[in-house]
């Protein structure tokens, strides 16, 4: 799973691509954990995620609940993410506006 992480003193910006599944979620966690600090804003771009399973959804829930973060936002949801959120009944759980990536709208 390719992960692009950009940080500064106040924010962590993450872009994920390919799959967010039981096989890759540990890689995502390990790559991100060293960048997490108290009172930072975290933004995760999900536009390039092609597959997600319950382990991936569970990690997104855990990240959203991470109490030290000032805010955690998921943005540019891919069709795979939207489908998984709807299927699991978690669409409203994240309190994020679901914005589809442009290729997911077609």
UniProtKB/TrEMBL annotation:
A Pfam family per the record: STAS_2
Domain of life where this protein originates: Bacteria
InterPro entries for this protein: MlaB-like_STAS, MlaB_ABC_Transporter, STAS_dom, STAS_dom_sf
The STAS domain, residue ranges: 1-106
Name of the protein described by the UniProt record: Chemotaxis locus antisigma factor antogonist
Species assigned in the record: Shewanella decolorationis S12
